[in-house]
Specification:
One of its GO terms (biological process) is GPI anchor biosynthetic process. By secondary structure, the protein is an alpha/beta fold. The protein is built from 15 helices and 17 strands. The longest helix has 41 residues.
C-alpha cells in the first residue's frame, strides 16, 4: 500500500512537471508569436534611403542661350568659325544641406536671311513679333540677337531691348577689327549675362524660393519681401472681385465685371495655366463700411486714410466677404470700395503723407483694395440714387498689377540702358512666365522635400504609427516625382520640371496630412504596459513559478546523483 502511494506521488509530480512544461511551451511557441503578430502595428515599406538623399538637396538649373549675330557685327573671318558653343557653370553652396549649380549652355551662330529681314523692321516691337513668327523658343530658353552698333532699330540711349517673348535685341559694343573671335565673345559675355539674369532668373530669386529650407539671413530683403508678398504655391486659387457700396440710397453702381475679367484678367490666367487652376467669381455687397473712420484734411478738402490705418481696414470687411466652403484653395480678394457721399472724396496716403496715385493698397497673400471716388461724376442737383458706370479699364489695371504681385510675378529692376517692353493685353510676357516657372519649380521641390523628409523622420522615431498602403503609395509617388523634377531641371526642361514638382508637393502633402497617421500618434509604451500587465501577469506567474520549481528539482536531483557517485 505504501509502495502504491509512493508511485502515485511520483507520477503526480511528473505529470505536474509535464503539464507546466507543456503550458510554457504552448505559451512560448504559439501564444507569444500569435499575440505579437496580431497586435503589431502595420507599417508598409517606405523608401527611407531615397528620402534621406533628398535631405541633402543639390539642384542644377540649366539654361539654353542662343546668341545670334546679325549682318555687320562680325568680320567675314570671324563668321567662318561659326557655329560654336560654350558651357559656363557656377556653383553656390547655400547651406550645409542645400547647394545650387547654374549651367549656361550658349550657342553662337549668324542670323539667317529670314531673321535679317525680321531685324529690318522699323521698330523693335515689330522686329520682336516677326522673330517670334519665324520660330518659337522653348520654355526657359533665351535668344539674344546682336545688332550693329549703328543700327537705327533701337534708340541711341538703349543698349538692350527685351520684348514680350523670349528674345532680346542687344546693341553690339564697339569691337576692334583686330580682335580675335575669342576677344569679341569675351567682351560680349558681360552684356549677355545681364540679359539672361533679367529674362531667366537671378541667384537671389532662387535662394528666396528656397526659403522653406534655408535661413532668412541667406536671402536679401528685397527678394524676401517679394517672396512674402506672393501667395504660396497651390494647385488652385480662388479669385474674388467684390464691389462695396456702403450707400446704395445715394449711388446705383454698375460694373461690367464679366467683360472686364475676360479682357483684362483671363489672358493672364490663361498664361498661368501650367502653374495652377484658377476660378473667378464676383459679388456686390451693400452697406459695407471700412473699419476705420477717415480724417478730413482741410488743405485738400478731402478725406484721407493714412498708411498706418490701412491694417485695420481688412478685418471688418473680410467678415462680410464670405468664403467658398466647397474649396480648400487659397482665396485672393480684390475689393472696389466706393465711398459714401458723406466721406467723398477719399484718398489713400503713403508713409510719406503723399497721395497714392492708384488710390489702392494690397495686403500680402490676401489681396487688394481700391478706393473709387465718384463725387465728380455728378453735381449737387442730381437726384439720388445716381447711376454710376464704373471705368473698368482703370480698375482692372490696378487689380491686374496687384494680382501679378500676389502670384509671384516679381518686379524686375533692369540694368541701365535696358528697355522692357510692356506685356500688353497678355498681362504677362513669356520671359516673365519663365522667371515665375523657375521660382515655383524650385519652391515646390524645396517644400515637397522638406515635407517628405519631416514625415520620414516622424515615422522613424514613433514606431507605433500605422503606415497603410495608401500613405506608402503617396510617399513613393512624391519621391519619384521629386527625383524626376530635379532631373528635368538639370536637363533644362522647365515645363516638365514644374509639372513633376506640382505632383510631388501634392503627393507629399496628402501623405503628411493623412488622417490615419493620427490614430496611434499619442499612444506611448507605458500605456501598453498598463493594459497588458493586468491581462498577462495572473497567467504568467503560475507558469513562471512552476518552471522555477522544475529547474530547482532538476538541480537537486543532479546534486543527489553527484553525491551518490562520490
Amino acid at each position: 500500500m505504501l509502495l502504491k502511494r509512493t508511485l502515485f506521488c511520483v507520477f503526480e509530480k511528473q505529470r505536474g512537471r509535464y503539464a507546466a512544461l507543456a503550458i510554457a511551451a504552448v505559451v512560448i511557441v504559439v501564444g507569444i508569436p500569435l499575440w505579437w503578430k496580431t497586435t503589431e502595428t502595420y507599417r508598409a515599406w517606405l523608401p527611407f534611403s531615397e528620402i534621406s538623399e533628398l535631405d541633402s538637396l543639390q539642384l542644377q538649373l540649366s539654361v539654353d542661350i542662343e546668341v545670334v549675330f546679325s549682318r555687320g557685327t562680325l568680320t567675314p573671318e570671324q563668321q567662318k568659325k561659326f557655329p560654336l558653343s560654350h558651357v559656363n557653370e557656377k556653383e553656390h553652396q547655400v547651406d550645409a544641406k542645400t547647394g545650387l549649380r547654374y549651367k549656361y549652355e550658349t550657342r553662337y551662330r549668324t542670323a539667317t536671311i529670314m531673321e535679317e529681314d525680321a531685324l529690318n523692321q522699323p521698330t523693335a516691337a515689330e522686329a520682336d513679333l516677326s522673330l517670334h513668327m519665324l520660330s518659337e523658343s522653348s520654355c526657359g530658353s533665351v535668344v539674344v540677337y546682336v545688332i550693329p552698333e549703328t543700327a537705327a532699330l533701337l534708340p541711341e540711349d538703349v543698349k538692350v531691348y527685351v520684348g514680350q517673348r523670349r528674345t532680346a535685341l542687344l546693341r553690339s559694343p564697339p569691337f576692334k577689327s583686330s580682335w580675335s573671335l575669342k576677344e569679341v565673345l569675351s567682351n560680349l559675355d558681360v552684356k549677355v549675362e545681364q540679359v539672361v539674369s533679367t529674362m531667366s532668373f537671378s541667384h537671389q530669386d532662387i535662394v528666396a524660393a528656397l526659403s522653406n529650407r534655408v535661413r532668412m539671413a541667406k536671402v536679401t530683403k528685397e527678394s524676401m519681401a517679394d517672396s512674402m508678398r506672393a501667395i504660396k504655391s497651390s494647385p488652385g486659387y480662388e479669385i474674388t472681385f467684390s464691389l462695396l457700396n456702403p450707400d446704395p440710397r445715394s449711388h446705383s453702381l454698375h460694373w461690367d465685371i464679366e467683360g472686364a475679367v475676360q479682357s483684362c484678367i483671363q489672358p493672364l490666367l490663361n498664361k498661368l495655366a501650367p502653374i495652377a487652376n484658377f476660378s473667378v467669381d464676383s459679388q456686390i455687397l451693400y452697406y459695407v463700411v471700412l473699419g476705420v473712420n477717415p480724417r478730413f484734411d482741410n488743405s485738400v478738402s478731402a478725406y484721407t486714410l493714412s498708411a498706418d490705418s490701412l491694417s485695420h481696414v481688412i478685418n471688418p470687411v473680410e467678415a462680410r466677404l464670405g468664403s467658398n466652403a466647397a474649396s480648400s484653395n487659397p482665396v485672393l480678394n480684390f475689393l472696389l470700395y466706393v465711398p459714401d457721399s458723406h466721406h467723398s472724396p477719399l484718398f489713400i496716403r503713403d508713409h510719406s503723407k503723399r497721395e497714392v496715385p492708384s488710390n489702392a493698397f494690397h495686403s500680402p497673400r490676401w489681396g487688394g483694395i481700391m478706393v473709387y471716388n465718384v463725387n465728380e461724376m455728378y453735381g449737387p442737383e442730381a437726384e439720388p440714387p445716381v447711376d454710376i458706370n464704373i471705368n473698368m479699364a482703370k480698375v482692372m489695371g490696378v487689380f491686374l498689377a496687384q494680382l501679378r504681385l500676389m502670384l509671384g510675378v516679381q518686379h524686375t529692376h533692369p540694368p541701365t540702358g535696358f528697355v522692357l517692353q510692356s506685356p500688353g493685353s497678355a498681362g504677362l510676357a513669356d520671359w516673365e512666365l519663365d522667371r515665375l516657372l523657375w521660382s515655383r519649380s524650385v519652391e515646390n521641390i524645396a517644400t515637397a522635400s522638406t515635407t517628405i523628409t519631416s514625415l520620414a523622420q516622424l515615422l522613424d522615431q514613433i514606431g507605433n504609427i500605422v503606415i497603410n498602403d495608401n500613405i506608402a503609395q503617396q510617399v513613393s509617388s512624391a519621391v519619384t516625382s521629386l527625383q524626376s523634377a530635379v532631373a528635368e531641371l538639370e536637363a533644362g526642361n522647365l515645363a516638365f520640371a514644374l509639372q513633376y514638382s506640382r505632383e510631388a508637393i501634392l503627393a507629399s502633402e496628402r501623405a503628411f496630412f493623412d488622417p490615419s497617421l493620427l490614430h496611434l500618434l499619442y499612444f506611448p509604451d507605458d500605456q501598453k504596459f498598463a493594459i497588458y500587465i493586468p491581462l498577462f501577469l495572473p497567467m504568467c506567474v503560475p507558469i513562471v513559478l512552476s518552471l522555477l520549481k522544475i529547474v530547482s528539482e532538476a538541480k537537486k536531483r543532479r546534486a543527489d546523483k553527484q553525491a551518490k557517485s562520490d
